[in-house]
Amino acid sequence: MDDAAAVAEAQAGHRDAFRLLVERHSRNIFRLGFRMTGNEADAEEVVQESFLRAYRSLARFQARSSFSTWLHRIAANCALDLLQRRKQEPQPSPAVAEEDPEQSPEERLPSPDAGPERRLLSGELRERIALALQQLTPMERTAFVLRHFEGRSIEDISQTLELRAGAAKNTVFRAVQKMRRSLEPMRAPR
To answer: Which residues, other chains included, contact 111 with Cβ-Cβ below 8 Å and sequence gap of 6+?
Structure first.
C-alpha cells in the first residue's frame, strides 16, 4: 500500500493504515529530529509529537504535497517548537551527536584503515560540526539540515518553513556561510 492509499484508509478511520504510515516514516522523522536537536531524547519527543499532530490533522490533509513532505513540515515545526522551549530553559553545554545504539560494538569501531590521528580528527570534526550547528538560529539549522542532511529541495524547504522560495534559499545560504566560518579553523592549509 503506498502512502496515498494508506492516508485515504487512515482518513476513513482505519488505525492500521495510520500505523503503517508511522512504521514507514518514523525512522526518517527521528533522523530529522536528531539532526535538528542534537539529542536522542528530544528526537524521540519530536517523533511522538509529529505523529500525534499528523493524526489529529489527518482529516485536513489535502494531498497538495506528498504525505512525506507534509509530515516533514510537521516534524520540522515540532523540532523548532522544542528548540524554542529549550532556548527559554537553562542549557548545559551543547551535546555532540551520540552513536547509534542499534549498532554492535564492532560496527562502532573505526575502519581498520584509519589510524589514530584520523580517528581523533574525525571525532574532533564531528564535535565541531555539532557545535557549529548549535550556533545557527533554529530556522537556519532547520534549513541546513533539510538541505544538506535530508537532501530536500528548496521548494520543500520553503513549504516546510512557510517561506517564499527566495527566503528559504537565502536562509540555507546564510547557514552555509556560518558553518564555513565556524569550521574554517579545521580546514587544512593549502
So the answer is: none
Which DSSP string corresponds to 33-73?
Answer: HHHHHS-HHHHHHHHHHHHHHHHHHGGG---SS-HHHHHHH
Q: Residue ranges of the domains in the chain?
A: 1-90, 112-184
Residue 184 CA to residue 128 CA, distance in Å, equals 10
Q: Are 61 and 29 in contact (CB under 8 A)?
A: no
CATH-assigned architecture of domain 112-184:
Orthogonal Bundle (1.10)
Tell me if the pTM is above 0.70: no
**If one looks up domain 1-90 in CATH, what number appears?**
1.10.1740.10
Q: Mean pLDDT over residues 16-32, rounded?
A: 93
End-to-end CA distance of the chain: 53
